[in-house]
Specification:
single chain; alpha/beta; eight-stranded parallel β-barrel; 10 helices; 9 strands
Length: about 250
């Protein structure tokens, strides 16, 4: 039985500021198999790693990512808002900034872990983001380690047309009646499924070799244990990779 992989969701967002270099570094030190992150485009068309279309929740700034150039975005703290987390360090976290995708690739390349790049194109189109992401990943020679995902299906299908060898996965929040038909007809490498779909539907517990099932975002200990018992789940994405790795190692 193959070992289920643990991906740090936005790094280790249950304990560190999400989608930041300090958070990704922490996840790497924990020994994650992979990292999930989100990319958007700035006003000057730079690839930045941030989940929300606005910077209000995760930084001390306000407004849309797309309305700032990279230099302007770098003026805001991407860590100071996370004072509710136990490890909060005002001096260190206050100096954390929204990273570029290039900065993240520079950080993780020596580790050769897997990387899930989610294209945040379901609200704004971010014209050309697919080409820019592919070009940057190729620059680092990281093509074989990356799976691209999105809720916005046209975005990952476009990416696949540009680079047929790219691995793409559809982010799904509802049950699919015959999942493999979607995988086959759309040319998907996998499905990234909301945890409740997998926990509540037995068909995702049956043997599946044709595509990868990655489950998000699983934080409850009992739910992690349930999924670790499934031999068809490839990856668990979690805000608490330290805990998930410990549970996996005990199972």
């Amino acid at each position: 039985m193959k070992q289920i992989k643990i991906f740090g969701h936005r790094g280790s967002m249950g304990t560190m500021p999400e989608n930041t270099l300090i958070g990704f570094r922490h996840a790497l030190e924990l020994g994650v198999d992979g990292i999930e992150l989100d990319v958007q485009l700035t006003k000057d068309r730079e690839l930045v790693v941030i989940h929300d279309e606005t910077i209000d929740r995760t930084t001390d700034g306000t407004g849309y990512v797309k309305d700032y150039n990279l230099h302007e975005l770098k003026q805001f703290s991407a860590g100071i808002k996370f004072s509710d987390l136990e490890l909060f360090d005002e001096q260190v976290w206050g100096n954390e900034r929204i990273p570029t995708l290039e900065e993240v690739l520079e950080l993780i390349t020596p580790y050769q872990i897997e990387l899930n790049i989610e294209l945040k194109t379901n609200v704004f189109a971010y014209d050309g983001i697919e080409e820019k992401v592919l070009t940057l990943v190729k620059k680092f020679g990281y093509e074989k380690k990356v799976v691209y995902s999105s809720f916005h299906l046209p975005s990952i299908l476009k990416l696949k047309r540009i680079e047929p060898s790219a691995k793409i996965a559809w982010l799904v929040v509802y049950n699919l009646s015959r999942p493999f038909e979607y995988v086959k007809s759309l040319g998907l490498e996998g499905l990234h499924l909301y945890k409740d779909i997998v926990l509540q539907d037995v068909k995702y517990g049956q043997s599946v070799d044709e595509y990868s099932i990655r489950v998000w975002t699983v934080n409850d200990q009992k739910e992690i244990e349930q999924l670790l018992a499934r031999n068809t789940i490839e990856t668990i994405m979690t805000d608490f990779p330290k805990d998930a790795i410990a549970l996996r190692n005990r199972s």
